[in-house]
Amino acid sequence: MIAKLLPSLRTSLLLAAGLGALLSPLAGHADERGKEIYGPCAACHGEFGQGGKKGEYPRIAGQQAKYMESQLKAFQKRIRVNIPMVPYTEERELSHEDMKIVSEYVAGIELPTAIPTFKDTDDALTRLQAMEKVMIVPREPGDVEAGKAIYQKQCAACHGKTAKGRGMFPRLVGQYSQYLKRQVDLYLKGDRPHDEETTQGVLNTLKPEEIQNIMAYVTALQEEVNKQ
Ligand code: HEC
Ligand code: HEC
Cytochrome c domain: which residues (predicted)? Predict the structure, then answer.
């Protein structure tokens, strides 16, 4: 019996050691793993995380990693209701570890925000692919100065002075306005929790035109942020 078990035990040990050796270099390639997990997400969020359909699918490239991870968990627990993403965030599809890896991968994707200058040698495909990545959200109408005043007073503390977000606070600059406005509506209706105590209050005190002015400011800010 023991004699029979021993070789198999040795095989398992060898296998385990072999796997360990295989896995350790992979740990250094979290990016590759991230890209792999991201595969099915691209159908909606685009190959480079640039989103699509004018904000039906949000841009997630360059979004804050910690924030995205928290959102994926919220989708999984149905705290934030997102019907299209439900099958992709089920436990068996996406473990918490994978959520972290994919969030970090997506956060690290930088999208150019200016039309690239091409070399004469660049072929049509190279040009097309480069253009697909360019992310410029159109300017929103509204009073930019008024929007700036409200934004800097009431939103900047969490979303950052240039609206790039930080940690658990999402980036707003460079995001589709349609998407942002839809989120504000969801918060106001109480369908999505904005922030535990303080923030729903912040959004609740704003008139629709003030929200529009904030959008005008955030889309104008884009150009400023891009120059940095
Ligand atoms: C079938 C389409 C679809 C697929 C596939 C999909 N998503 Fe989404 N995702 C959406 C939609 C739609 C929203 C916005 C929902 C809303 O308006 O509240 C969203 C929102 C998000 C958000 C929140 C963005 C923010 O700014 O709050 C993150 C993060 C995200 N998706 C990541 C992923 C990842 C990672 C995957 C792959 C594992 C994925 N999504 C797959 C449709 C999809
Ligand atoms: C006290 C901190 C705080 C302040 C102040 C604040 N927010 Fe937020 N905001 C958050 C947090 C946290 C989230 C993410 C909530 C979640 O988990 O869904 C968020 C999410 C958002 C989103 C959704 C982003 C996305 O990608 O889905 C919008 C839009 C938004 N806030 C707008 C505003 C505006 C406009 C103001 C100022 C009037 C503001 N917030 C002030 C903390 C804050």
Answer: 29-110, 142-222
Residue 186, C-beta contacts closer than 8 angstroms, at least 6 positions apart = 192
**95 and 156 together in one domain:** no
Residues of the chain above pLDDT 90, percent: 56
Backbone φ and ψ of 174, nearest 5°? 85, 0
Diameter of the chain by CA atoms?
Answer: 83
Tell me, what amino acid is at 197?
E
| pLDDT, tens digit, 9 for 90 and up, residues 132-174 | 788 889 999 999 999 999 999 999 999 999 999 999 999 999 9
> Domain range spanning residue 181?
137-227
- CA separation for the pair 83, 191 (Å, rounded): 13
Same structural domain, 86 and 146: no
The domain that contains 141 carries what CATH number?
1.10.760.10
Strand partners, 57: 52
Sequence-ordered alpha helix ranges (H) in the chain: 2-27, 30-38, 42-45, 65-76, 86-89, 96-107, 124-133, 144-154, 156-159, 177-189, 198-204, 208-227
Looking at the CA of residue 214, tell me the nearest atom of ligand 2: 35
Lowest model confidence (mean pLDDT) among 30-39, 54-63, 70-79, 110-119: 110-119
